[in-house]
Amino acid sequence: MKFQRPKGTADIIPTDSKKWQYVEETARKIFSSYQYEEIRTPLFEHFEVFSRTSGDTSDIVTKEMYDFKDKGDRHITLRPEGTAGVVRAYVENKLYGPEIQKPFKTYYIGPMFRYERPQSGRLRQFHQIGVEAFGVDNPTLDVEVMAMAIDFLSKFGLTNLKLAINTLGDNDSRDNYRDALVAYLIPFKDQLSDDSKARLEKNPLRVLDSKDKGDQEIVKNAPSILDYLSEDSQKHFDQVKELLDALEISYEVDSTMVRGLDYYNHTIFEIMSDSKAFGGKFTTICAGGRYNGLVEQLGGPETPGIGFGLGIERLLLVLEAEDAKLPVEQDLDVYVVGIGEETNIESLKLVQSMRKAGFSVERDYLNRKPKGQFKSANRMNAHFVMTLGESELETQTLNFKNMKTSQEVTVKLSDVYTDFSKVYQNALKLEVEADGE
Asked: Is 256 annotated as a binding residue?
């Protein structure tokens, strides 16, 4: 029997995982500078956590969730997105308490699961980086979240990014707009797709998000939510635009934009790239918005919130297509070449000593001849090679070779054990001197 990974999943092998680690560490550094701290929530939650928050007409709930009954007959769901689980943790752990700094800022990195047709950059098990901030309704936080997302993407050298923004307004705005949108769509009801017919009854704003080409033609002339904003909603959105202008962050307003999850309100945004990975067409790589009211849906107090999410697989497609600088090889400071069986114990002691001193070190384990070991050192891009043979054992010395300059020096074995950092730095000085000649 031939075993293969499940459809829609991927193995991240060591040659690729270095890139993943780089993306994740870059996220951690950027988010930390904005005072966001990591949260880790379960991979599965009770079904209601997502059905209640994402909306029972959303594609996630109706088509894409991996849900099942466990042995205790509990309805369980593999998490399809990160926000709802974080909100559940926020409520359950009472992270809204008076002693906790506001806004409460957090981020997550991890796998999500959606049963959808696998395609490039879109898998059934995919990985998401996301941030959430709770407790502040100030438009300044909306803009800070967008700025942080742009900072993160810009760290990889991505420059041709487009920020699109819109507002879904408050409850009054949405109610008024809903009535106007339904009045517009009713005459086209028979022409709508089956999904949009169902949404027209339960959540007509979702019709605007339809991927059906016929639906898209119909909604082209639909009324704009920007014409139905309450005074407070208009003020909030105007301040968002004013603050983006103050930071000199270019943007465009897309009044047709809606998010695929029902919990969004007020500011929503998408960051797009026209990367070659998507055929040069602007495609969303990061999206988010404000979700005031979501905390209350999961049993918490009235608490505003805002955040964004992006898929790591999708981001890596862009970075590789745009030739972004990503680490592909692991640094190796020293390769120890042991010549002869009698050097095995000393070689082991040497590599362990240098590793404990904070250096990346490797050795031969196959009893190969020196030539084969030097080939390994070259393949692994070792900076230095340390050679230990019978004569070196006798004299208690080592041959230390710079693989870049081919310079060789003899060092005392005791110096390596006593202070290898000093030995290494001295060798680097010789390299600098050689480069200067």
From this structure: no
